[in-house]
Amino acid sequence: MAKVKGPLMSLEATGQFGGELVFRRSGRGVTAYQKPAAPAAAPSAAQIAVRDEYRAIHQDWLALSDAQREDYRQQGRVVGLPGWNVYFTERKAKAEPPCEGGYDAPDLSEPVVLTAGYSAPALSVAVVVKPCHQPS
Predict the structure, then answer these.
(1) What pLDDT, on a 0 to 100 scale, did the predictor assign at position 40?
(2) What does DSSP say about strands 130-131 and 21-25: parallel, antiparallel, or unpaired?
(3) Is the C-alpha dihedral spanning 30, 35, 36, 41 positive or negative?
(4) Which pLDDT score, from 0 to 100, does residue 25 have?
(5) pTM surpassing 0.85?
(6) Pick from 57, 59, 61: which is nearest to 72 by CA?
């Protein structure tokens, strides 16, 4: 959908209009339009899989009750995000399989020993453990 400020062919327009025209704005502030370009190649199997996953998550979001969606919206307000983003992030995190070896976490079972002659004030350490991600 095109975003238009003023008459369509005059001031500012960006985006697609009716599938027939694509508007863009250059760095100099000039609005240009052209016919939409056809994709160069068919989507890959990986792209199709990602699209299917996103589609399934969105369909699940639409199937939630109003009360469930409102719960996600309230969670989102805490962090400044829409409820859909909170739901999507949660679902994506659950969908990612754990990698071999589990989590990349530092070994904190032994105390940290400083190099001889080095002194430092007492400090607190916060460790954030995130799942390791291996490229596919």
Answers:
(1) 86
(2) unpaired
(3) negative
(4) 76
(5) no
(6) 61
List Cβ neighbours of 100 (8 Å cut-off, separation of 6 or more).
134
Sites in the chain below the pLDDT cut of 70: 1-12, 96-136
Query: Quick one: three-class SS letters along 61-89?
Result: HHHCCHHHHHHHHHHHHHHCCCHHHHHHH
97 is written with which tokens?
């399989």
The pLDDT value recorded for residue 94 is 79
CB 47 within 8 A of CB 40: no
Nearest C-alpha neighbor of 19 from the set 38, 6, 40, 42: 38
Positive/negative CA dihedral, 95, 98, 104, 110:
positive
Beta bridge partners of 34: 22
Strand segments, DSSP code E, in 1-136 are 3-5, 12-17, 21-25, 31-34, 103-104, 130-131
Domain spans of the chain, in order of start:
45-95
Instruction: Report the Cα–Cα distance between both ends of the chain, in Å, rounded.
Output: 34
